[in-house]
Amino acid sequence: MRAAVQHETGQDKLEVLDDVEAVGFGPGKVRMRVRATGLCHSDLSAMSGVLPQPAPFVPGHEGAGEILDVGDGVTGLKQGDRVLMCWLPACGSCPSCKRGQTHLCLAGFMNAGTPNFKRPGGDVFGFAGTGTFAEEVVVTANCAVPIPDDVPFEIAALIGCGVTTGLGAAFNTAQVAAGSSVAVIGCGGVGISTIQGARACGAAQIVAVDPVAARREAALRFGATEAVDPEGLADAKARITAGEGFDYVFEVVGKSATARVAYETTRRGGTLCVVGAGALDDHFQVNMFELFFDEKRILPSLYGGGDVLRSYERAIALWRAGRIDLEGLITHRVQLAEINEALDQMRTGTSLRTCIEI
Question: Which of 85, 75, 71 is nearest to 38 (CA)?
């Protein structure tokens, strides 16, 4: 079986090998044939070591495909079912799940420490317990979520992570109010999805902020009312909000420096929503007086901050109704053998989402 493997943390290239085997199939598991997968910035962060991930590993967590086989005890899934990959499945029985905060369930993270591939040289992990840059993957059954027949694999793959994360930040975490002002810092695939979510919520002004001109142009197509480079954010704040600050500011980069800018761009009593996944040693700082005096809400948003199964259904419904554009997010398509070209496209900002057809 072919898969793209990262041998050591810090390497910037993947090696596509044909001697990888998906392992771990048994009770409660399914074997999935991956048909399409998106390249998410979190994959790059795992490769560089920003996000912790044992190596060697197969990156990829934003995928969709078909069920090849189901293990004993698996119900609701059968061979041939079309599914998307949920990289953070809910166990249904832990304290977080019982509280209704299923996106905070840690069961999925536990899978990341168990190898789900092997090569002649030894075990290979899958990123976030999945590893969709492979022809096949074995995962727990609750990672495989059935999708309707009218949803293409490439669209389902995006819903599996980036779209759900961005839309959910606006809908679930920040709960953007109609008529409000919004700024989104970082306009890759997740940032664009956040913009679409804010638009669907009825935001009156949506300012997209990104250093890459192509991404700023894309943001305008997806619902931003204005797009500026980072140096233009202060001017936009002064013009649009009379210097008060935006009602909602989304940080979709994962850096303390941009989070601090986002905080300063948020009005008193407004909401800073942190969507970007950052490093363990990158510390965001506020002083105790401003924290108290400004009463700004600082809301992290993990995987869209809500029940992901409901979020998937909402994304599909909005897509079917033409309220959000998911096809337009896919700016490049490559084969698995061209995975390193896709990595370069994301690093340079020339892509929103690259679909890897496997």
Answer: 85
Q: What is the DSSP letter of 6?
A: B
pTM of the predicted model as reported, rounded to 2 decimal places: 0.95
The pair of structure tokens assigned to 316 is: 């599909």
- In the chain, which ranges are continuous DSSP H helix? 41-48, 95-98, 107-111, 153-159, 162-168, 189-201, 213-221, 233-241, 256-265, 288-294, 308-320, 339-348
CA 168 distance to own-chain centroid? 10
Q: How sure is the predictor about 292, in pLDDT bands with cuts at 50, 70 and 90? A: very high
Distances (CA, A) of 71 to 78, 89, 104, 118: 10, 17, 26, 19
Pairing relation of β-strands 57-58 and 122-126? parallel
State the pLDDT at residue 170.
98
The rounded distance, in Å, linking the Cα atoms of 136 and 131 is 9
Please write the tens of the pLDDT for every residue from 244-271: 999 999 999 999 999 999 999 999 999 9
Cis bond before residue 146 (omega within 30° of 0): no
The C-alpha angle with vertex 325 and arms to 319 and 328, in degrees rounded to 5, equals: 135
Does the pLDDT at position 349 exceed 80? yes
